[in-house]
C-alpha cells in the first residue's frame, strides 16, 4: 500500500519536469530565419543547377541526374568559409575545405 503514494509522486515529478523543459524550449530564441521563395528566382535556379552539377561530378553512377520538378524552395542565410585550390589558366578548381555556420 505504501508504493502508491511514491508512484503518484514520481508521476507528478515527471509531469513537472516535462512542463519545465517545454517552457524552456518555448523561450529559446533563434536568429536563423528560413523563408519559402519561388523557384523562379535566379539564385534558386543557379543554386539547383550548381548542386546538380557537383553531385554528378562526385557520383560514381554511370547515369547523370537532373532535377525534374521542384516542390519547394527555402532560403536561408549562412556564413561560409571556403579554401579553394585554383589553377586559373587551366580552369582547374577544387574545394579543399568548407566551414559553414548559421550565426
Structure, briefly:
Helices cover 41% and strands 24% of the residues. By secondary structure, it is α+β, with helices and mostly antiparallel strands.
Describe this structure as you would to a colleague:
There is one protein chain. With 103 residues, the protein is an alpha+beta fold. It has a domain at 35-61 and 76-103. The chain is built from two helices and four strands. The strands form two sheets. Strands 1-2 form a two-stranded antiparallel sheet. Strands 3-4 form a two-stranded antiparallel sheet. The longest helix has 25 residues, at 3-27. It is elongated. The N and C termini lie far apart (55 Å).
Helix proportion? 40-55%
Spatial extent as radius of gyration:
25 Å
Number of helices: 2
Question: Which range does the strand content fall in?
Answer: 15-25%
Distance between the termini: 55 Å
For the sheet with most strands, the description reads:
2 strands, antiparallel
Order of helices and strands: HEHEEE
Give the strand order, joined by hyphens, for the main sheet. Answer: 1-2
Structural class: alpha+beta
Low-confidence stretches: none
Shape: elongated
Overall pLDDT score: 74
The overall strand count is 4
Topology record:
Blueprint: H1 3-27, E1 35-37, H2 42-58, E2 73-75, E3 79-87, E4 92-101
Antiparallel strand pairs: 1-2, 3-4
Give the tags.
single chain, 103 residues, alpha+beta, two-stranded antiparallel sheet
Amino acid at each position: 500500500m505504501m508504493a502508491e503514494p511514491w508512484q503518484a509522486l514520481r508521476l507528478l515529478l515527471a509531469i513537472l519536469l516535462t512542463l519545465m523543459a517545454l517552457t524552456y524550449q518555448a523561450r529559446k530564441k533563434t536568429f536563423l530565419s528560413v523563408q519559402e521563395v519561388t523557384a523562379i528566382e535566379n539564385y534558386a535556379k543557379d543554386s539547383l543547377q550548381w548542386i546538380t552539377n557537383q553531385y554528378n561530378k562526385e557520383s560514381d553512377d554511370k547515369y547523370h541526374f537532373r532535377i525534374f520538378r521542384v516542390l519547394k524552395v527555402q532560403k536561408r542565410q549562412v556564413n561560409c568559409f571556403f579554401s579553394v585550390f585554383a589553377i586559373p589558366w587551366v580552369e582547374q578548381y577544387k574545394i579543399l575545405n568548407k566551414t559553414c555556420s548559421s550565426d
